[in-house]
Design a protein that fits this description.
The complex is a heterodimer of chains A (about 350) and B (about 475).
Chain A: H1 2-27, H2 31-50, H3 59-76, H4 83-95, H5 114-149, H6 154-162, H7 170-189, H8 208-246, H9 249-257, H10 261-291, H11 293-299, H12 304-313, H13 317-345
Helix pairs in contact in A: 1-4, 1-13, 2-3, 5-8, 5-10, 5-13, 7-8, 7-11, 8-10, 9-10, 10-13, 11-12, 12-13
Chain B: H1 2-16, H2 20-42, H3 45-53, E1 83-86, E2 94-101, E3 105-116, E4 124-132, E5 139-145, E6 151-158, E7 162-166, H4 171-185, H5 195-200, E8 218-228, E9 234-242, H6 258-294, H7 296-311, H8 314-324, H9 329-340, H10 345-356, H11 360-367, H12 372-408, H13 419-428, H14 431-434, H15 437-465, H16 467-470
The chains are: A mainly alpha (about 350), B alpha+beta (about 475).
Amino acid sequence: MRYLVKRAIILFITVITAVYVTILIANMGGYVDEIVKSEIYLSVSQSVRQNPAYRALNETQIMRLIDEIYNLEIKKIGFDKPFIYRSFIYLKDAISLNLGRALFLASDSGSRSVRIIILERLPNTVLLFTTTQLILFFAGLFFGLFLSRRYGSFLDKMSVLLAPLSSLPGWFYGIFLILVFASLFRLWFGAGLPYGGMVDPTTSPADKLAYALDVLKHMILPVASWLLAYSFINIYVRRTFFLMFSSEDYVELAKAKGLPESIIQRRYILRPTLPPIITDFSLTLIGSWMGAIVTERVFGWPGIGSLFYAASMIFDTPVLVGLVVIYAYLLAATVFMLEIVYAILDPRIKVGGR
Amino acid sequence: MKTMLQLSLKRSFKQLLIYKSAFAGLIIILVLAGISIYTVITIPYEEAIKLWRAGEQHWLDNPRNAFPSWINLFLSKKMPETIALSTKKAQPGVSKAIIPVDGKFSTIRIYFSFNYEYDDFPSEVNLFFEANFTTSAPKLTIYWIKPNGEEITLKSFLISKDDRYYISGDDKLALTLRDSISKKLNKTFGYEAMVQLLLFAQEDESILNPNTAKVMKGKYTLSIDGIAFETGINLDAKLVVYGKVYGWAGTDHLRRDLGIALLWGTPIALSFGVTASVTITLIQIFIGAISAWFGGKTDTLLQRITEIFMILPFLPTLIMISTFYKFNIFVLLLVVIALTIFGGGVKNYRAMFLQIKEFPYVEAARTYGASNLRVVMLYLIPKILPTIIPSMVLSVADFVFLEAALAILGLGDPLAPTWGKIINDAYDRGALYKGLYYWVLEPSIMLAATSLSFAMLGFALDKIFNPKLKEM
């Protein structure tokens, strides 16, 4: 237990530092300051204009009053203090997930809250890339095991030969898939898969089944592009990994004992190799949520990658910082969960003094 | 020690040639390097940027969105090339006469004739003028004479000193032509036929449908008749019949020759990829070695820093930095390096060094009093260098694509012509919707060739340097 607590604390400090670095980066352009200032100005002017007590004042007087209160407010939150001091205030807000309001972007429901904007987009990304990564994961496991048993066969040699194809990223294959299945198919057959997006604007969300089917249809090309890009290397790496483990002495012993193939695979090969595989899987999964900005842009998928792209194009810093914060939390939480999962999967690791 | 390393490198190189894929990869890399050298020598960087950024003015004689010329080899219908005729050059089919009459006025007569033997219509037809006069502007009338002798008056107007007449953009002319053809055939047009089609088409039933309209092949003449009320004037004209194919690479929406960006993309991609991967790997190894060798507080500190950088999402951070500060490609490279030197690689190398640290030969070095730096640089790092080379070669591909990815997000170097930039332009202009596939395919093929060649080489190297894999 003490070990876990210690790890949690270290991870938390890491997250804090990472977020702080992000804030520093985003601040070098002075953008975060501008956000806060404009936010205060907006709220001050709103409260002054809506206050019945000031209704008798004319426009110049109101403006002067707004400026006065605004300057007071700025002082109150410490904007007269040096940046180093203020940066810690931003850090506190970010860490407590008090993400503030977006400068320009708004959620589909019209909200300006960064948290709502992000939470609205996150499920789309999670849906697309979790599907992809799960398929990749199980395909890798299955074919990896399969090929490691048929070492040297034609299929095995093919997998080795095709592995370099994975040096091209998913979005790159995406462009080709769109070219063939969206563009050329329309030319040849008069109908093709969608160019991009998540649903047709004509599909009504009320009809759940039709909606789901439409989303599925839009998922085909992005998922396929990632499978095309990453399954070869994935299978190759798994196969090599299993091959290395199949030549361990205890596996040889199990074979000599005459244990059935399925038990050898499950108990003697899969079990000890599972922890690193699961680590790899979960880190890749989390990474894909954030690292798929280009894929989401190519396919016009309305996930957090597209959100990040849109936000960076119009300098919407609160959204950018918010995304990085959420990502850092997710990653840290995953790493922490892995520590626990390790303990369950691998009896050789004993956590703490349990 | 050195000779040993050289020997083993020599042996590895020989082994390398055994693998066919590695051989193919090497050849492609050599070709790309050759292209790079050729490009850097023939088109200096400044000139390339100037050409690429010049805007449409510089490329006025090029067609818009033209396919590469070699596409004609695969098509049964021959696509038109651009025909440019200018009175400033001595070209066959061009004649110009400006004759002063009575010392009071001048008559102008310019002919452009050319043979049009293509199966498709031109994409545009423009006429450019450069006139030199003092007070009275010449009045010009422009005629179009088709191969069957039919003469059409295009326009009659007073020109200014630097004038142009976009014939294919003349909607009024299109309307008049459609009317007269409709009357002649006694049938109406089912579509809005463009001027360039009406001027070059056979005037029979086929013209009524854009899919059946046929080119009337033969000799066309454009004649300019003019009169000016002063002597000593000069007029130069240029007729450009824009084709639908251009050069070996085609053009983009700004009439720019894609060839320039394709050529210049090569040295940029190669230098970006190779520099990034070599520098980053070496620095990561160095940090890993320091971390493992010194241990204790240094180790803890370096490991914590590494973990922070691993939690920072790489691509988003890079995007954030490059939107806030528009970088040129070299600064971008530095930022990429700075963001990745504390990457996950450090952890792997540290783990390797922790094992090597206990080897007897390191212990021996320590007993005879080798300094820390000496042990790290001469005993630890050279030991794992060979096993790292494959992943170094493999990661070149990643960095080549990283540059392209940033360009596709509109965040690359704002000036340099790169492959990613072309894809970005093509994507923004809906090249895939419009069927302008060459625009996307050409840079893509270059990208794919580059990264595949490094990947094939890297995989083969992996088998040579990591013998445990070789058996598998």
